Amino acid sequence: MVPATDDLEDEVTNDARIPLPDGGFMEAGLEGPEEAPLIIFAHGSGSSRHSPRNQRVARTLNDHGLRTLLLDLLTVEEEQKDLVTARHRFDIDLLGERVGSAVDWAVDELKPPAVGLFGASTGAAAALVAAASRPVTVAAIVSRGGRPDLAGKALDEVRAPTLLIVGGRDNTVLDLNRSALEDLGPGHELEIVAGATHLFEEPGALDEVAKLASDWFRFHLME
User: Is 3 inside any structural domain?
Assistant: First the structure.
């Protein structure tokens, strides 16, 4: 069975609100140096911007000169309904639109020199969908234990160099990522963290994810 739930929760500071076309808004946490390339994080199914794993990766990116924006892809009302129905967390079209709204907002309000996307679990599919429709704006993507296969036909349209990071013991997700990599084509890569399972809970596994992500973003956004 493919894992669905991503993380437990922790704290986020420097809150931001991103307006949506229907009049609602997404909550987000913004950290890191101003005027730096911005990495927008899309959480996995059943998680939020409070994800301690994404926060840990984000801190590493901050330490390496990158700015981060961690999103709640669902509004408060949608999140409450989703806790019962689990419907929205697998609605990749909706989640992709939300990531796209965050990209557009960030470009207008924060004016970063470059934008990258970091997606976990179903959030990786949402990031790929958003990037496919913004080939000029999104300059790099990293997926952590993601489900890029759920992006469907959008994979063919992704132009931003994409790094897929998967645990070596996350067998089903690893197979799905290998298949998605073929659809993505040249210029994209798969990195396997040896001995790691879906949530990279093993000692040193998440540190390896953070290093790989930092190196990828720095190379494509800063060099």
Answer: no
Q: Where residue 119 sits, what CATH number does that domain have?
A: 3.40.50.1820
Number of domains in the chain: 1
Contacting residues for 205 by C-beta, under 8 A, at least 6 apart: 167, 193, 195, 196
Residue 5 placed within a domain: no
Q: In this structure, what token pair is assigned to residue 16?
A: 């931001």
Q: Which amino acid is at 133?
A: S
Token pair 């994409």 is at which residue?
162
Q: Which domain covers residue 53, as residue numbers?
A: 15-222
| Any domain includes 2 | no
Residue 44 CA from chain centroid, whole number? 8
Scanning the chain, the segments in alpha helix (DSSP H) are: 52-63, 76-85, 92-109, 122-132, 171-184, 205-222
Give per-residue pLDDT as tens, 125-152.
999 999 999 999 999 999 999 999 999 9
Flag whether the pTM goes above 0.85: yes
DSSP of 28-81:
EEEES-TTS-EEEEE--TT--TT-HHHHHHHHHHHHTT-EEEEE--S-HHHHHH
